[in-house]
Give the backbone structure.
Amino acid sequence: MKKLRSHEWFVRQDKMGFIYRSWIKNQGWPHDLFNGRPVIGICNTWSELTPCNAHFREIADWVKKGVWEAGGFPLEFPVMSLGEVLLRPTAMLFRNLASMDVEESIRGNPLDGVVLLMGCDKTTPSLLMGAASCDLPTIGLSGGPMLSGKFRGHDLGSGTGVWQMSEQVRSGEMKLEEFFEAESCMHRSKGHCMTMGTASTMASMVESLGMALPGNAAIPAVDARRYTLAQMTGRRIVEMVKEDLRMSQILTRQAFENAIRANAAIGGSTNAVIHLLAIAGRIGVRLRLEDFDELGSEMPCLVNLQPSGTYLMEDFFYAGGVPVVLRELGEADALHRDALTVNGQTIWKNVAEAPCWNRDVIRKFAEPFKEKAGIAVLRGNLAPDGAVIKPSAASRHLLKHRGRAVVFENIEDFHKRIDDETLDIDENCVMILKNCGPKGYPGMAEVGNMPLPPKVLRKGVKDMVRISDARMSGTAYGTVVLHTSPEAAAGGAIALAKSGDLVTLDVPGRTVRLEVEDGVLAARRAEWKATPLPDRGWLRLYVKHVQQASEGADLDFLTGKSGAPVARDNH
Ligand code: FES
């Protein structure tokens, strides 16, 4: 085996070798561990404030077993954990910050390979981004989804159920006491959201990119096989260090193309667009917003999971999970079969024989759950640099629509007016929400799936066209145009929209337009004023440097990678 990074700390026969070994021996490690064996970092996003990742100390223990078995030396370390539900104003504000923590923790320490423990939405991209900028042998391991929620004899999907039931409360179909009763029934085991929301989507992306062992995405968090996978991951990372199999050999353009197609086939979240763009930016693969449309939009959705369909991740696992989807793509010639994966085999070798056990959950490519279900990228004077929509989660009759705009200047303005019975709005209007993008919120919160006004809900209407520079939860649904770029706070055209303007959405034609004369828009632009930068701290750094959603919303100075050279001694 070639000389490892960790040798620069632990195999040294000098004063610094004494220092590097002596202090860590306070944990009880015997001297013979410092014999040059691969040191494996287990990058842990465990936190009691991140409920989806609260079982990760246990998972880390199983990874360690595997590392020991393979002759490595496992060392677990914490990084900033991003809990989607508790963190305010939005976990996305801190994705890039956590990625910096990951990158510098890996590079600064005596690590030869890394296992990334990921679960809740932002913990997956932040770890992949940080690790990609170091480019060591790295393997991803997701914490697994929760068991299906159960309420009054029916399945209840995380997130999706909240959006559905809260609209029922607002329309008077459901009592508040019933709504609160469901709160204890929705999340009843360890794990992350069990709909095909962002966490499940990103876990599926990790598997489709080849960055995790087969089966990673769908095994429930509490299934014994999740712990088997953790142990196998520990064994494998030691081998990867010996083979010097690095992230950049796996995260190729082909791998991202596979992931984009897989995202369409699973009915995955729009958030995957931003995260994949950011990860590609770190590893040095050129990926454009248009790639999602060109590669994915003609793809069928094969997976009948909420929010686009009926089932939940537990059912997906029992049906065969991501390997079945990848097999379907491969057989339809929609997969780069020779893309390399972390187990050293091609993706096709991993999935070619994957059996499907339930064709209602995972459909065949030729008999899909939904046709042409990938993410569509829209352009037009309302989104010159692009906006996205997930047609599989939208209402078919609204995909071509012209309506009068009802504009909300920010999220507070929306909350203040949406329940007002005198608000001049009906189901044909187009709701526009401004100042919720990366710079505007700041952090680009998941508020794009604006709840409908009660007077519209009472008519039995379940969907309206909504446009914003925000994101939406991967568990949400509706005819929702998101990520309009440039955002309002960066002076994007959405900042110029006014209530009463006519808006045309044409998803088949890929356009979203404000039907206002150029001269009028120019006059409005002359009056537009930028919001001053926040005074200090992370917020200031973030708002100053964050890129637009169409580019992945990474900080401009973080894109790219700088490897993991060993820095000079610390004493
Ligand atoms: Fe963590 Fe949904 S809240 S995955």
